Amino acid sequence: MARELMPVAEARQRILADLPLMPSEQVSLPEAHGRVLAVDVASRVTQPPLAVSAMDGYAVRAADVASVPANLDVIGSVPAGGLFEGEVGAGQAVRIFTGAPLPAGADAIVIQEDTERDGDTVTVTEGVRPGRYVRRAGLDFAEGDVLLTAGTVLSARDIGLAAAMNHPWLQVRRRPRVALLATGDEIHLPGEKIGPTGIVSSNTFALEGLIRAAGGEPVTLGIAVDDRDQIRALAENALGTDMLVTTGGASVGEHDLVQDALADLGLELDFWQIAMRPGKPLMSGRLGATPMLGFPGNPVSSMVCGILFLMPALAQMLGTGETEPVRDTAVLGIDLEENDRREDYLRATLAHEGGKLVATPFEKQDSSMFSRLAAADCLLIRPPHAPAAKAGDTVDIVRLDGSNLRV
Description:
CATH architecture of the largest domain: 3-Layer(aba) Sandwich
Number of strands: 26
Largest sheet: 6 strands, mixed
Low-confidence stretches: 403-407
CATH superfamily of the largest domain: MoaB/Mog-like domain
């Protein structure tokens, strides 16, 4: 009888358990874009600090222009950043520009298009109600308002808001440092001379991009041949990083030495193999204080494991709350056979047809075919033992351009 494999959701839950939250560090605003805010940020100022004009025109008392045309005496002018020292009385007006403080006594702005100026007299041709074209003090926000919260991945808009709140520095989570170790006699770097049985390494480069997209910092350890001593020697360099991810050597063949090599360094294995395709040989444990994930060597399996497990792990360490891949729904573009005991993640394209989002899996789903993953718009999820499905049925998907992936 086949051994019962761990479900995907349980594997993710166990990986996320007890992961450390990254400490905070202070960075300047130009360095904060894309970083994760560590603490809530309250405004140091009120914006605008005073009632100001929203338009170029004349500051008036609304009662004086209730009946038009109305002739008013112009008693001064106030530009943005200036301040009118006097007070607007009955029958008076002050020339004002956008952003300038509203003079005392005035309660509205007449836009310049609704006026005719003749020396020190202005004729108002369109009346206004009190408060018209006036931005009250604190219209945007007030001192003490919390406008950015911990866990926010800081966008360009957030950086601008922090600047408007008078914060030149922000406390953000330190980027998790993720060590990457590829294994395999057959693996070569791009551009190297490759023999007839050689394979160009892609896993490390893809995972580096995934880690950066998730807010981490990749630390590439290199490629270890299928030698226990070399794997152990390179893996030692991961001690002191925040996580170790290996690719290859996680299956059941006689050359799969990762578990043995890391055991020499004190690996505590939590689980190995899950009910998932691609990615069944996933491994999880701890190397001393360093969390460890072992991904399969097949490029698609490695990347799918990165999306479903590594990115949520980094979200947990950064405190963003994005610890579950965001699911969406679509309708199936083709018929599918019933599924076996493993949760399937099929590479699929998305198209809008007849007002519906249609997901169509590629016919061939071999885990060595990276080109299919690069061309895919989503991963179509087939639960374990799912019955046969017909075109038009509703299915769950994980978008590969989802906001929580930032891939």
